[in-house]
Amino acid sequence: MSSLVIPLDTSQIPEDERKQLKVKVAVDDGGEITSQVIRVSGKDEVRLEVDGKRPLTVAIGSDSASDEDLFRLQTINVQVSPHQWQDKPALTLPPIAITPHWWRLWLLWCRDFVINGRVVCADGSPVPGAEVRAFDVDFFWWWSSTQQVGPAAVTDANGHFTIRFRWCCGWWPYWWWRLRRWRLDSDLFDRIRPIVELNPRLKLPDPDPEPNLDFLALIPQPEPPIRVGERDPLLATVPRGTQLDPTVIPTVREKFLSQLPQLPEFERLRIWPWWPWTPWIDCGPDIIFRVTQNCGGQVKVIRSESVFQTRWDIPSVLNVTLLANSEACCLGHTPPDPLGDCVVLTGVCGDPGVPVTSIGGNSGAPATPVGYANPGGRDRPFAERVTISGQFGTAAQADYYEIEYSPHGLNTWAPVPPASMLDFARGYFDATQPWPNQWFYPGFPVLTFGARHVYKSRRRYETENPPANWGLAMTGRTWFSNVNLLAVLQTAGNFSDGTYDFRIVGYRALASGDLDPSTRQVMPGCGNNAANNLLTLRIDNRVVGPATSGSVHINTTEPDCGITSVTLGAANVAPCGSNQLAPGTPLDINFFVTDPHGHLDHYELVVKYDLGSVKNLLSPADVGTLTLTGGPGVQTGPDYLNALAQAGSPGRPTWTGGSMHLHIDNASLVFPKTCCYLVQLTVWKRNIVSCGSPLYYNQMHYSFTVIV
Fold it and tell me: 3-class DSSP state for residue 209?
């Protein structure tokens, strides 16, 4: 080994500034890097043991960079040849002056950044156990490159996270380019391509996945044409092919920009060439985030930001709040339990979902129509699976509870049919467990004790599953899913159509954990209001027969619909028929929509033809003058609220429909060309089915050809 002496001259740097950083000197012999860090005093030297028989590269810069990055960043470089040693054991280089320019550049070279943030759901509740990654983003034309900064961070029970990272700038362009990975960005492409197409002389090629500077197809043919053997001045500055030299990008910007419209929005979004682009000297990170969460046994992306959400040139300390999407599991703001040994039923189909106060005949709701959601509005009955939510009081003794029901107002109470009770699960977050295994979903099945079929209360589960740290989000367990769900009832096949009252009956547990039947108690309604333990619902399930093969019509009368005849003038139009249409000929359609329980919501009558063309036969804007009439006592709607407003309406909550007749004065507006036409009738009921969808509907169509 030989000694290489490297004298440093920092006399041009004011003495007080020399204290602001240390200098690193590194030597690369092509296989190994040797370095030393010193605090300079004006005249200094560094001695390193090296292999004098190999070519050496000396790099001098700030100690904030790693040994490898010292050769990638813009540093003072000196080359040492083996011939300079002349077989001597030591070599002293000429003094290397460090000027104020280099010194101030190195002061900004590598800085420490901190991102403090919080991930929340739309209601502001925290998202715990989520993995947050921050990325620096750059984009050139319609390609983008993202590079993670700092380690991934996991949110705590309050949704908070912190990411710390070091950011370096002042790279040599080719090294910066080699360290990035690029992709064709669909968001950028969709924004830029329509702008380029505004100039019809620009021929746009299909973009490559990797960025390039092959602008041959993007440069319009000059006017007048270039002579044979002569190149366009812009093309002369651009190397042909796909090999990209990033230092060329600034040189072609102005000339290329002259071919494109001026767009302040693209300049604001920093899209090249509208915005100058030299990212290798960018000393401010430009940050986007991606957040995932393993909740429910599956990793889901709950926030993914695009280049258009970039936070430009962030400060050394950045504070952010990230809004998660609907896929996130969050610790919701559950209202405190009421006081006392009591229960309050709050709603169905959610927590509260459809609040009790918005179901007719219940506490705090309009008196009529009884059991219908949105009384005075759409008056919606319930069907199939119904969930019931509520809260036990803080002193409630109900370790187990059953659901009783009675036909509305009769007080003939009995336990609900056992087959109607369905198992369910709750979810809790446990801050004491290691990430990502912090989410738990215990089951709350239907339990059988003799003739009684009951659910276990949430508080009983907490008692049986210590430690007693429930409700402590940061250090314990917190319920987040189905917190106040009390029961899941399948009404189809278990309840006849009608209006029913429901209530909660509680039981205490024996020392063995079994149910103690002697402690049966109809739970008092919280707030000394018995109505708080009473839920009234209108049930309407439909019966469907065997499916008819190859038909869109559902084998049910709940609802039912059909097209009975179509007439052009005096000529009947048969299904699959072909009729000539004379100018001024009227169109008549006879059809029916019905529901025996009077729960129709609305219907649609349309004609479909050609390639995706549709006309609404009940809209004058589509078909001109029309008349819609019904048989005796029939309200034509075509929706529930219109039916209620029409003369002779039977009143809430009933609209049974019936046979109707549509007359259109000029069929030529319906059938504008020779084509095959399909008249389609669709009818829906108002029911809330299994707490949402699918809605009850039926459909029929009638097809024929019209020759114009």
Answer: coil
